[in-house]
Design a protein that fits this description.
The protein is α/β, with parallel strands linked by helices and 180 residues long. 34% of the residues lie in helices and 12% in strands. Strands 1-4-5-6 form a four-stranded parallel sheet, covered by helices on one side. The protein has a two-stranded antiparallel ribbon with strand order 2-3.
Length: 180
């Protein structure tokens, strides 16, 4: 069985999910999809992803995550969300998944003041509304499968629980000194 995102190869991830299900038929398996970013190493949908779906700042430059390994996608764009939902729907047919884990489902703006320097307030609102729309659209598209999001810490984005099945918080893994 592969590890570390199976070297970013979704076909290997699907094969691993099938192998794990053989080992334990009761196991629930959720592939990972970043709600906020497109990573440099992502291979899924590479030929159909459009560069105009990246989130751009006031100077029309792509916005990247803190590590520079991924760029924000513009969740306010319905065409991007439709593409993402299509990718996830396809994955649900490739292996015995119980649903999807939407990682990086953190709202932008709020207490994170750096956003005010990069985006207009309307763009922040539209992006956050797009995040909620993405989670809702994924939920509708995959039917009775589960949608779990990671992003309840920090911004305390509990509003997504109205459109998702549950949330996880991996913040304690990265910020153990803050854990209570």
């Amino acid at each position: 069985i592969n590890n570390g995102h199976a070297n970013w190869d979704m076909e290997k991830v699907h094969a691993d999910a099938k192998a794990l299900k053989v080992l334990n038929p009761d196991l629930e398996i959720y592939p990972y999809f970043s709600a906020s970013f497109r990573f440099d190493r992502d291979t899924y949908g590479k030929t159909t992803f459009k560069s105009q779906w990246y989130l751009k700042d006031k100077d029309k430059k792509k916005l990247s995550n803190a590590k520079g390994a991924a760029d924000y996608v513009d969740l306010s764009k319905k065409a991007y969300r439709t593409w993402a939902v299509g990718i996830i729907q396809d994955w649900m047919t490739k292996a015995p998944y119980s649903g999807i884990l939407l990682d990086d489902a953190d709202q932008i703006g709020g207490k994170k003041k750096q956003w005010a320097n990069k985006l207009a307030k309307k763009d922040i609102t539209d992006w956050n509304n797009g995040l909620t729309a993405l989670v809702s659209e994924v939920q509708q598209a995959i039917g009775d499968k589960h949608v779990i999001f990671n992003g309840i810490a920090g911004n305390q984005n509990s509003g997504l629980l109205t459109v998702a099945d549950s949330a996880v918080n991996d913040d304690f893994c990265f910020n153990r000194a803050k854990a209570t």
